[in-house]
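SEVERITY: medium
COMPONENT: batch folding queue
REPORTER: lab tech (J.R.)

DESCRIPTION
The queue accepted two submissions in a row. Attaching both inputs and their returned structure tokens so the on-call engineer can compare them side by side.

ATTACHMENT 1
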Amino acid sequence: MGHSHSHNHSHSHNHPDLKGRNLLITILLNIVITLAQVVGGIISGSLALLSDALHNFSDVLSLIISYAATLLSRKKASVNKTFGYKRAEIIAAFVNSSTLIVVAIILVKEAIERFVNPIEIESNLVIWLALLGIAANGFSVLLIKKDADVNMNMKSAYLHLFTDMMASVAVLIGGLLMKFYELYWVDPVLTITIALYLIYMGYDLLKSSTRVLMLFTPNTIEVQQIVSAITKIQAVKNVHHVHIWQLNEDEVHLEAHVDFDEDINLSKFDQILEKIEEEVYHKFGINHLNIQPEFGKCDSKKVIEQD
């Protein structure tokens, strides 16, 4: 078994403690907003505020999941968990995106009922609480913006917070329209708009986290191209039994059987292995490689083998 780990790159890893600390701050802020909005929504009778509170509450939960995932993904691998908890963050992204969609559907249902029977709403309270929401979420969004670009879990947290901020902006506009023009139907219309946006964003994340969990080959990688790149290397006869999967966002693994033209010795194999590593890392970004060398072995030579 030729196994190689020479490329363990720490690109895109900014300090996890910082990531964790920023998340913790956003969790506390969100708890405060949620409580304020629930109380305010009940007092003022605004569905948009309550829906915003529900949305914020789903955020608090998802941020807590994301936070736990960041902590877990740092735990070291052990004998019975050889990969450590490297997938914790992907699972967090999966759970978050699914809850996002569920919350959104509930909001749409509520808003349609409200649209049919509009209710008078105490708009001053709505305006002040919306401003609070914008300030707190805006701050949270800025805090975790740069982690969101490189990390699926942080991206799901970021999306939650960003939609929250937009929701609060919408609620603010609604509050002003209700205060000055008594347009109470604005409340459910806003609720529906917020919800549709949530469904749209959540679906994308759900899809990409599912791909990783299902061990699908990453979208950017063409198996056939890899096979022909390795086959071009001198002494290699063919490549079969290929598996490519993504462990988490930083690690892509490839395992394959490689048939050789001649009965080479191990030191020669190591030289060829190094060439293969270079090839697949530079062209395809694969950073973990496991090659099984073979010579004249009678087995199926299909590139993809159904076990």
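ATTACHMENT 2
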Amino acid sequence: MSTASLAIAGSGPERRAMAQPAGSLAGFFEEIRPHWHSQWAWDHYEATILGLAHQFGLRRVCEIGGGRGPLFTREQAVRNGIDLIVNDIDAGELALTGRGLATARFDIAGDLSEPDVRRGGYDMMVSRMVFEHVDGVERAWANIHELLAPGGVALAFFPTLWAPVFALNHVLPEKASHAIVHALFPARREGGGYPKFPALYDWCRGDPALLEPMLKRAGFAESHVQRFWGHGYFDRMPGLKQVDHAFNAVAARIGWNFVTTYAYVVVRKGRG
């Protein structure tokens, strides 16, 4: 079993001890062979991060926008051999972070002037469903490059345009968008555990040809865009669910980048 396959299958300090920071980002994903459907991305997000950390020897991990729902508890982070720092722009969100986890308040798309900023201080930076809400994503990627240590890796998991379901969310007035999401997902109503924030979708695309030049401008030596299709928004709508699944299956088979629904965008900073 390969190093990447071993790491994606599970985690543990003994695997961290075996880590060899070698190989490419594309090679990592070729070995773990993600499924085309976005359910794989949701189910394997944590394992993918641990696999990358293992493969490339990364320990100090900053979760961007982690606030109320961090990637791991303190106990899970320790068990997996990582030091987790939870970032958010909002002090109120950071106040909801689990006990024992370190926090850092700064704007990932800002000027990095906040006291909590540590340039070159992280081996890895990760985010889930954050970048679609960021105003100034290209600046955010440049800032991530500034915050990563040499050889550091970042992964951003976000929804993409122009998948029809997200294109609709993008063009509808925010009040209408809120009403639809709240009807489909009660937990995302105001006061729920996963509130809905306005989505801008700046640079939220699944096309490597579009993203890679921007990521290179941000300074990264290597990048990989892992594309996904499909979603769960129509799961309660028999008929429409099957039609949408068939559409996404065809799009995935032909590699239609214009209608990806989600992407993992992974970058690595050079060592020089």
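NOTES FROM REPORTER
Strands lie at 60-63, 83-88, 102-105, 122-128, 148-159, 222-228, 262-268.
No errors were logged for either attachment.
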